[in-house]
Design a protein that fits this description.
Layout: E1 3-8, H1 13-21, E2 27-33, E3 46-50, H2 56-63, E4 68-71, H3 82-103, E5 107-113, H4 139-158, E6 161-167, E7 169-170, H5 179-182, E8 183-184, H6 186-198, E9 204-209, H7 221-225, H8 238-241
Parallel strand pairs: 1-2, 1-4, 2-3, 4-5, 5-6, 6-9, 7-8
Length: 270
């Protein structure tokens, strides 16, 4: 039987990678984005959907018959107004969950962020628990925390299995000292989302999306519980970046959100 996986934000950085790395025999990918996407390759078991997940009719149609929704879509990081985050990240995610409920989708995987808890301290040697309560560091972080709450509601009220992945710093390789403790490699990103797709009956979960970093402070207990076992380590790159990389204001880097915790981060005129 073919498994159908809908990926929103499939033209984004993570979405583009997962388009290839999640492909397998017996799995059909629905790739939804408002941005242009590469044409299907010969033999690629997928379909391209040019639409926004904020469009009620379009997202409901895209959800019909889907076994899993991987929700990557939205405004990423900073630089947007509160109204933009509210319209796209919060109201849009509500529309997605409502469409998933109406279409009978049994599982949603939500790409959250460590910025949902960015004002918590970053203390070397002190493990950050999986279900750390929200202390967002920015409007972006608020949108992620609010969407985690929507995820919890739709699980408790309607029984949808939801896994919220609090993703660290996703990139090909660490680029500064801060990333040495919260890096998520591309290969581990695939392992993370694959585990979230296939783990049986997860209920509602909060899982840290980071690699097996020597300097990591995030718990990987819930990650292991869903079958995610990271294999990459930012420490392999440490010797290349520490000497020439400045972290900026050291006080900001005593918090998980780093520069996002600056008082002027959301000031578009700063």
């Amino acid at each position: 039987m073919t498994q159908t996986v809908l990926i929103t934000g499939s033209a984004g950085i993570i979405g583009s990678q997962l388009r290839g790395s999640l492909a397998q025999v017996g799995r059909h990918l629905r790739l939804l984005d408002i941005a242009a996407q590469h044409e299907l390759a010969p033999g690629e078991d997928a379909e391209l959907i040019s639409a926004s997940f904020t469009d009620d009719d379009a997202i409901l149609e895209a959800c019909r018959g889907a076994d899993v929704v991987v929700h990557l879509g939205g405004l990423s990081t900073g630089g947007y107004s509160w109204d933009e985050y509210l319209d796209v990240n919060i109201n849009g995610t509500f529309r997605l969950f409502e469409a998933a409920r109406r279409a009978g989708v049994p599982r949603v995987i939500y790409a959250s962020s460590h910025h949902a808890v960015g004002f918590h301290p970053n203390t070397p040697g002190v493990t950050v628990p999986d279900y750390l309560f929200a202390r967002p560091d920015s409007f972006y972080g608020v949108s992620k925390a609010a969407s985690e709450s929507l995820a919890s509601l739709y699980h408790d009220r309607y029984g949808i299995d939801v896994i919220c992945l609090r993703i660290g710093s996703y990139r090909d390789r660490p680029t500064d000292e801060r990333v040495l403790w919260n890096w998520l490699s591309p290969d581990d990103c695939t392992r993370l989302f694959e585990a979230a797709i296939v783990t049986p009956s997860p209920g509602f979960r909060l899982v840290w999306g980071v690699s097996a970093n020597t300097r990591g402070i995030m718990s990987l207990a819930e990650a292991a519980a869903i079958g995610y076992h990271p294999m990459d380590n930012a420490e392999d790159f440490a010797h290349q970046i520490i000497a020439g990389t400045a972290l900026g204001d050291p006080e900001l880097h005593q918090r998980i959100g780093g520069p996002y915790t600056s008082p002027t981060f959301d000031d578009r005129e700063a």
